Amino acid sequence: MLPAATEIAAALGLADSLVGVSHECDHPPEVRARPQVTHCEIHGGALPSGRIDTWVTNTLTETGTLYTMDEPLIRRLRPDVILTQRLCDVCAVGYDSVTAFAKTLPGPPAVVNLEPAALADIFEDVRRVAAATGVPERGEAVVAVLSARVEAVRARAARARTRPRTVILEWLDPPFACGHWNPELVEIAGGEEMLGHKGRPSRRVTWEEVLATRAEVVIIACCGFDLARTRTDLPLLHAREGWADLPAVRDGRVYAVDGSQYFSRPGPRVVDSLEITAQILHPELFAGCFPARDVVRVAAETASGGTGR
């Protein structure tokens, strides 16, 4: 029912066992051919961020959910296990809706709730899915590899002489500070997240709060947006009074990343997000250490229309 769950299943070698995925599941690429069992009215649309925020707020108030399930399709697919979540009503079909529907299916299927608030919780979710699908040993193997990568970053970052004041923005109109695992990623990578709180939800903030951080690094990781869509929102930044005076902007240390593929997904690629963060915060320590991933240096772009990398 959500991309992170699909990626966990794939990491466990279970991609061929996936009989259905959500409309947002797109990694690994072969899962795009699976039947899509959910729908969101504005998915793939081009609404401005401010209007998306308004639609989300109003729709949740009026209906309690942003998504619909294709119930007849799911019945035909006859799943044995349903992977879902109750972490965030904005991220996937509501947990209560899924569990209520699952009770009406043959079996009924096991419903596995993924609700991580921290990095350790994400790794525990890998184990949880592995146990529910009968491959617990694969879960331990996947977690061992991911944990080793995390500790490699932690050890190298400990050599840093500075811990830059950092802000990860998960939305720009209105601005949202990061939450859950993302402040922890900044900490492990050798920075200090100035607005987000470990293990707590992302939250709406004011631009005055953003500017007051005097952030030395800003990472723009818009929830649900790929890098191309994120770049269309960048003009919102230089339109803000005081933005150009932020140390991160003056020093050219504002970066846009693919929030949808990385920072918004509590699955195996959360470690990719950590490595991206480490390279941004401490290029002197991490340059060339990891596979290339799309990161756009945007301070010049927001100021003059350029496309710095």
* Radius of gyration (Å): 20 Å
Which CATH top level class of the largest domain fits?
Answer: Alpha Beta
Which fold name corresponds to the CATH topology of the largest domain?
Rossmann fold
As a percent range, the share of strand residues is 5-15%
Largest beta-sheet details: 7 strands, mixed
Structural class: alpha/beta
Cα distance spanning the termini:
34 Å
CATH architecture of the largest domain: 3-Layer(aba) Sandwich
- Total number of beta strands: 11
Which blocks of ≥5 consecutive residues have pLDDT under 50?
300-309
Structural domain count: 2
The helix count comes to 14
* Mean of residue pLDDT values: 90
CATH superfamily descriptor of the largest domain:
Nitrogenase molybdenum iron protein domain
State the helical fraction. Answer: 25-40%
Spell the H/E element sequence.
Answer: HEHEHEHEHHEEHEEHEHHHEHHEH
General form: globular
